[in-house]
Each structure stands twice: as C-alpha cells, then as structure tokens.
Amino acid sequence: MLRLNHLCSSIFSAYKISNKTLDFSTKKFRSQMENYTTCSESSSSSSSKLLFRQLFEKESSTYTYLLADLTHPDKPALLVDPVDKTVERDISLVGELGLKLIYAINTHVHADHVTGTGLLKNKVDGVKSIISKSSNSKADLFVDHGDKIQIGNLFLEVRATPGHTLGCVTYVTGDGPDQPQPRMAFTGDALLIRGCGRTDLQGGSSSQLYKSVHSQIFSLPENTLVYPAHDYKGFTVSTVGEEMLYNPRLTKDEETFENIMQNLKLSYPKMMDVAVPANMVCGLQDVTKPLSDE
Description:
The protein is an alpha/beta fold. It is built from seven helices and 14 strands. The chain has helices at about 25-35, 85-95, 115-125, 205-215, 240-245, 255-260, 270-280, and strands at about 5-10, 35-40, 50-55, 60-70, 75-80, 100-105, 130, 140-145, 150, 155-160, 170-175, 185-190, 225-230, 240.
C-alpha cells in the first residue's frame, strides 16, 4: 500500500506519485489538492517518480506545468504551456532542481498570451518545441492523436480535443503499472475547472468541443486530475469525476451546451492580434533558429 511520507504546505510544491492508486474520494482529494500537494514514495525501487510543479502567470491567469522523471540519470523535464513573461523564472527553477529541460510543449495556439517556447529554445540548449500538427503553426516536433511524448521512463499521451481551436490537444500522463497514478490531464482551454474555452474564434466549434471533451477527457478514469491552462477564480485542480458532475456547461446536453456557448457575449481578447501571429511561429516574431514546417 502507498504510504504518505509528508504533506507540503504550498500548492505549488513538488509532489511524487507512485504506481499505486491513491484511494481518496473525489471531494476529499480535491480539498487536499487545493491546500497542499501530496508527497509520496513507493516501496518499489523500480517505480518511476514524477516531479510536478504548477506555476502561474497572473496577467493572463495562465498555468504552466513542469514535469520530470527523477529516476532517470538526466532528470529529463518538460514544460507545458510556458509563458514568455515567466521564462526566466522557469529556467531558474529547472536549474535549481537539477533538471534537464528537453521539451517545451503547448496545448494549442494561445490567443491571450505569447508562448515561452521560442525564448526557451534560444536560452536553453537542446530544447525542442512541440505542438499539434493540426494547429498549422511552427515547431520542432508535431504530434497527432495517440502519439506519446517520452521523458525518461514516463510519457504523456496525446489526445486530440479540438473545439476551442482546431489544433487543441490534451496531454495525459501514461497508463501503466510503471506510470504515476492517479493520471493527470493537462487540458489546455478545452476543459477548464467548472467551465471551458470559448468557441467563437480560431476555428472554434461548440459542437466539436462538446464531443472532444466527452469522448477524450470524460472517458478517462474519474479520479484523473484535471489541470487546465487557465483559471480565473483561484482553483488549481479538479478531477474528471467532478467536472462530469458539476461543470455548469458540459453537464448539459449538446444542444443546450451550444446555446450557452453562442450567448456568452465575450469581448475580443486584448492580446489576440499580438499573441496569435507570434504563437504561429513558436512564440517569436523574429525567429533566430530554424523551425520545422512539417
């Protein structure tokens, strides 16, 4: 059985998850995750251990996630949805923790901030940028539905979840006895905590988003942790089970959901005209290193 060694006081502290399932109720587990992160170890020396950090950029209310495999000699790491304004913070943290950053990945082409992937590539040797091939933007590596992104002995599964944009994907930690449990889903803007991304811009479709969330995210185990790209109300994490019960939009039938999304009356994103063109070229207006088009 899993033995909890200690509890960390900060919600942004690292925690390790063993390959044994944490047997918490949804409500209890979410309450714990909002107040601290849990540190645990398996008695099995062969068990992979995940280092995880949730970071925040306040102007765009964006979460960036740092993941690394601590069992691998190189301690390989990746950043999910980095922001240009916090690149120096992220690089400093990676260095302090003794990690080797190998990937900077995005869930989609963001319209509310400029991604930090381009800056990270120029400041950290060997970093590769990753985005969905369906995004039609530039990057070093492109992923499709069903692909895996490997970091040491751990991997992220790619699930296509279009609807907010054409190229949205959700990255899910691997399923298997040597992978961390419970699973973690980095949902971008496809699924927010008690909400979802808008569908009126960048090729969005409310019908497509509804199908994406229900088929690719709500099909995950109910204890899967949901980590979105943004939150505007102070929430840090949810679960698939919670969102299936309490999400005020996606618990409705598809027709009602589409009506809700068509009547949000949202203002035009103030950063969109800057962010989207920059993010289509990996976050840099003037690319100094060649990026693949294929």
